[in-house]
Amino acid sequence: MNITHATLGEIEEIMPHLGESLEEGSRGYYQIEQDQATKMVQDVLNDDGQIQVVREDDKVVGWVLYGQQKDSFSGENIGFIYDLYVLPDYRERGFAKAMMENALTELKLQGMTSVRLVVYAGNEAKQLYEKLGFAENRTVMNKSL
Predict the structure, then answer these.
(1) Which terminus of the chain is more exposed, N or C, with fewer CB under 10 A?
(2) How far is CA 42 from the centre of its chain?
């Protein structure tokens, strides 16, 4: 398994899949337009975020987008996982776990003492996150009006 930092060409390869990644991750709560997804990734990358990719069959089959945020209450810099995605035909092969472990190692090397992410109810990735040591620390609820 070869996990590396994404090149510009690999980022371009990822871009057409970002909308589906973010929609799937939000369990359909958000309908993401391609330009919105692109802007989100560009904003993270412009703020010193990074993308790591995993390749198989000579193509990018998964990625993790991560960076840092400032906690609005404590002012502490924390690591943040913005997106983790593996193309459907390449799941259940350990790619997501390996990419997460790489991202967590990099964030620790950058001096982060904690890492956060958002996972929507019903997202199967929650089990992976819990196996990696993430614990629920708050619940966000929604009511349509």
Answers:
(1) C
(2) 14
59 class by beta-carbon count within 10 Å (0-12 exposed, 13-18 middle, 19+ buried): exposed
What whole-number distance in Å separates Cα of residue 17 and Cα of residue 37?
Answer: 9
| CA triple 38-60-1, angle to 5 deg | 135
pLDDT tens track of the chain, all 145 residues? 889 999 999 998 898 888 777 767 655 566 667 787 788 888 888 888 999 999 998 899 999 999 999 888 888 999 999 999 999 999 999 999 999 999 999 999 999 999 999 888 778 888 999 999 999 888 888 788 9
Pairing verdict, β 2-5 and 77-86: unpaired
pTM equals 0.88
**What's the rounded Cα separation, in Å, for the pair 13 and 31?**
21
- Give the contacts of 83 (CB within 8 A, at least 6 positions apart): 18, 21, 22, 25, 41, 63, 64, 65
How far is residue 112's CA from residue 103's CA, in Å, rounded to a whole number? 11
Tell me the C-alpha to C-alpha distance, in Å, between residue 101 and each of 10, 85, 144, 145.
20, 14, 36, 40
- Report yes or no: 2 and 54 within 8 Å, Cβ to Cβ: yes
